[in-house]
Write a structure and sequence with these properties.
Strands 12, 13, 14, 15, 16, 17, 18, 19, 20, 21, 22, 23 and 24 form a 13-stranded mixed β-sheet that branches. A 6-stranded antiparallel β-sheet has the order 1-7-4-3-2-10. A hairpin with a 6-residue loop joins strand 21 and strand 22. It folds into 2 domains: 165 residues, Immunoglobulin-like (Sandwich); 258 residues, Immunoglobulin-like (Sandwich). The protein has 468 residues and is mostly beta strands. The protein is built from 3 helices and 24 strands.
């Protein structure tokens, strides 16, 4: 899809995509001022590298001495502005394993949580820029090298002093990695209902929806922190369809896209990925937006989008507010998806676990993309990938097909959480417990370029092309 990541992550192959300058609001600039320092800092890792006498990268702080793959950590960069850069220059941050061509990660972002882009930095300022990053659990090296610099289109500012490579990237720090701790997959149960019990209208007023298990609140995709606006998903199923309801708080519901297979991911949308067999070899991607437009794609391998496939998914959207009026204040929008169980096979005639039965497990993930006026796009999700790639198959959670009481035989009492919590799993207790089956094998192989890797947007907590 549009978010390219680990293994040549974040789209080095995507080429250059120029963006118009970010235009932060007055509130953003005001909030950013607490990170404009009046005295020089003393970073844990001093660097003092100069970029053409325009900027000095003073160094950085890191909240850990050792990086644990799969676990987010915090970088605090310090920049001194020697001369203003009025053009649309941007920060890049690269994470790489030494001597590995399979480890490039791009953590580009708009400084100070998206509130203070480089083109409005003023001479004499010292900028403190804090953001969260992570490397995948299958990180190939025993260390992480962090490179920083400035880019614009095909250009980079030259490093005139300080540690750097031959690509005008400042080497900020090299940190060792630790042994990976195995993380438990998130789980959610779909409650079985009678055929025809759900009227697809976006209202969610049926009793089945009120009793449906929830994913709990989505979190930011890059660092797993709480999202700014609440998003949850609920799940039901019958003998023919899987039903998914997204509930999105939104003060500014906005979209201009209204055609099937439009690039919904470039604006506001919700998404679901289904890997029914759990082997990372065949999966489907389904999206819709506040206008009820849909996008669907079958992938016979990691990022091998075949957008000519069309699902039989139906959606209904209910907006509490207006879809395209930036001037008013909205409350949110609700999406009701009806996904035929057979659609999980994509173009295949047969696929393991399709159709499902009580106790069947699918690997899935859910995402929401939000684009507030005048601010970068924000991504939240159920099981956060912690890299800029919604196709991080190893981070997908587990959907378990339950019975009419949302019970599933393989769930353990320890895995269950109460409804309303920010839950790994929300479901009534299971009458019988068994040990969960082992995780499916992770997908392997390098990412495959496709047209959607070229999506334009300077995004916070979301994929952004590595256009340097």
């Amino acid at each position: 899809m549009h978010r390219f990541a680990y293994l040549c992550a974040f789209a080095l192959v995507a080429g250059c995509v120029e963006q118009s300058p970010d235009l932060p609001s007055e509130e953003d600039v005001k909030a950013a001022k607490e990170n404009i320092l009046t005295t020089a800092p003393t970073p844990k890792y001093p660097v003092n590298a100069d970029l053409e006498d325009k900027l000095t990268y003073l160094g950085l702080d890191v909240d850990t001495d050792t990086v644990t793959p799969g676990k987010a950590f915090t970088l605090t960069h310090y920049w001194k502005v020697n001369k203003a850069l009025p053009d649309d220059w941007k920060i890049f941050v690269h994470l790489e394993a030494p001597d590995s061509k399979k480890s490039h990660l791009n953590a580009d972002h708009v400084p100070i949580n998206g509130k203070y882009p480089v083109h409005i930095w003023k001479q004499g300022e010292i900028i403190r820029d804090i953001h969260r990053v992570s490397v995948p659990q299958n990180w190939p090296g025993n260390a992480v090298e962090i490179y920083v610099g400035m880019w614009k289109g095909p250009l980079r500012l030259k490093v005139s002093k300080g540690p750097h490579d031959n690509e005008n990237r400042i080497l900020a720090v090299k940190l060792p990695t630790s042994t990976v701790e195995k993380a438990e997959k998130k789980k959610v149960v779909a409650k079985h209902i009678k055929n025809g019990a759900i009227k697809l209208d976006g209202k969610l007023d049926e009793k089945d929806w009120k009793d449906a298990p929830s994913t709990g609140e989505f979190v930011r995709t890059m660092d797993g922190m709480a999202g700014e606006q609440k998003t949850t998903a609920k799940l039901l199923w019958d003998d023919k369809n899987l039903y998914v309801a997204f509930e999105c708080e939104d003060k500014d519901v906005w979209s201009t896209l209204d055609k099937h297979d439009d690039k919904l991911w470039t604006q506001e949308a919700v998404e679901m990925f289904i890997d029914a067999a759990g082997d990372g070899k065949n999966y489907v991607e389904l999206q819709t937006n506040p206008k009820g437009a849909t996008f669907d794609s079958f992938l016979p391998g990691y990022r091998k989008n075949q957008n000519d496939w069309t699902s039989n998914m139906k959606v209904a959207v209910k907006v509490d507010g207006t879809v395209d009026n930036r001037a008013d204040v909205d409350k949110g929008w609700v999406v009701e998806m009806q996904i035929p169980l057979e659609d999980a096979k994509g173009k295949l005639k047969e696929l393991k676990n399709v159709p499902p039965k009580v106790g069947t497990e699918w690997r899935v993930n859910f995402f929401r993309l939000d684009m507030p006026a005048g601010r970068p796009q924000v991504g939240t999700g159920w099981s956060p990938p912690l890299v800029g790639d919604f196709h991080a198959l190893d981070k997908f959670g587990v959907l378990i097909f339950g019975d009419d009481k949302a019970h599933a035989p393989q769930l353990t009492a320890k895995a269950l959480e109460k409804p309303g919590d920010k839950a790994t799993l929300q479901s009534p207790p299971a009458p019988k417990t068994e040990e969960a089956p082992p995780e499916p094998k992770k997908a392997e192989g390098p990412p495959q370029p496709n047209k959607r890797n070229r999506a334009a947007a300077a995004r916070l907590n979301v994929y952004k092309p590595d256009n340097q």
